[in-house]
Amino acid sequence: MSLSDLPNPKAAAELIAKYRRRFSSKVCMAPNLDHHGPVVAAHTLSVEAMLRKVATDSHVYVVAQAKRFAKDTFPIEIHRKGLRDVTVFNGFCQKHDRDLFACLELEPFRFQRQQCFMLAYRAVARECYLKRKQFESIPTPDEVASVHGVEQKIQFSGAMLMFQAASLKGAEDVERLKSAFDKHLLAQSWDRLVTRAILFPSTPTVLAAAAFQPFIDMDGNQLQDFEDLESETSQICISVIPTETGGAAIFSWLDSANSAPQRYFDSVVRSQDLTASVLHVIFDNTENFAINPSWYEGMTESEKSYVFSRVVLFAQNTTYADSPRPDQTAPKLASWGEGVVAAF
Ligand SMILES: [Zn+2]
């Protein structure tokens, strides 16, 4: 499908242009006031300390906008991309991108309190930057009517309104979380972050940095209610990174969170295959990851299709509730060695 197939291609093009402008807007997310230099494309996974360890010829595989629109295909795909452009967002000025994350960029990751905090902070800042924009990007009924050349007033369905309301609430929840993180950052209260990890002897074949609201655990138990607009939801941060001894999947949340993050983490480690479990946390919940090219290119077509089917799984909640654990039924995709669960 192309824009010219739509009844009003001009309205559609304007909508897309507005959408692109919104996602390329530049703002420093640091709470400090001493901003300096231009806002840069900040990496949420460090280039040298992290991405380089899984890259081939400075490239990894990532989720990105499909290069070509075609009928009945997804607007996103997994493709190869250079390190300079992957896992970035326009979210920090030059000074803060350099100074705030120096403990991650210049020192080996050794689970120091500040390192754990800054790792989570970067993921939360990205989520906060994107969530509000995602909500703002849901087209209004008038915009939808205009694109489709409909004269009469369109009204959103109940499900669409629910989605819109929940998206706004999701944005507000992550903004609240970011403010709490900002307060702890300025006070250097690194201890307010609870950190758990799975340590692997091998370098993970997929790296990730994300924060999300766990609504249901891997065993299908409900943790929080997506449709309850009154309740305050908690988020969990996950970073999968290389370490000096292999790799780690690091889960963290603030000590003020409700029980959802801890219970979600408990369900992740209640697995026979911790690599599979972590791969599903990544693919099922986030699009901010980087895949090792030799691993990806070595997969069969059906394994690649399986991975993609998880990335475009927008209904984890019902899928998890109605199916056996995904790490038990999935094809065996990788092994990063015997994982060990640890608290920091
Ligand atoms: Zn700044």
Would you write up a description of this structure?
The protein starts with 8 loop residues before the first helix and ends with a strand. It has 344 residues and is α+β, with helices and mostly antiparallel strands. Helix 8 packs across helix 10. It has one domain. It has helices at residues 9-23, 94-99, 102-105, 113-136, 141-147, 158-186, 260-269, 274-285, 293-298, 301-311, 316-322, 326-329; strands at residues 39-43, 59-65, 76-82, 88-93, 193-200, 206-212, 236-243, 246-254, 289-291, 340-343. The structure holds zinc ion.
Q: Kindly state the mean pLDDT as a whole number?
A: 88
Number of domains: 1
Largest sheet: 6 strands, antiparallel
Query: How many β-strands, per DSSP?
Result: 10
Strand order of the largest sheet: 9-6-7-8-5-10
Category by helix and strand content: alpha+beta
Q: Give the CA-CA distance, first to last residue.
A: 50 Å
- Taken from the alpha-carbon principal axes, the silhouette is globular
Structure in a nutshell:
The chain has 344 residues and is an alpha+beta fold. 39% of the residues lie in helices and 19% in strands. It has one domain (3-343).
Write the topology of this structure.
Blueprint: H1 9-23, E1 39-43, E2 59-65, E3 76-82, E4 88-93, H2 94-99, H3 102-105, H4 113-136, H5 141-147, H6 158-186, E5 193-200, E6 206-212, E7 236-243, E8 246-254, H7 260-269, H8 274-285, E9 289-291, H9 293-298, H10 301-311, H11 316-322, H12 326-329, E10 340-343
Antiparallel strand pairs: 1-4, 2-3, 5-8, 5-10, 6-7, 6-9, 7-8
The structure holds zinc ion.
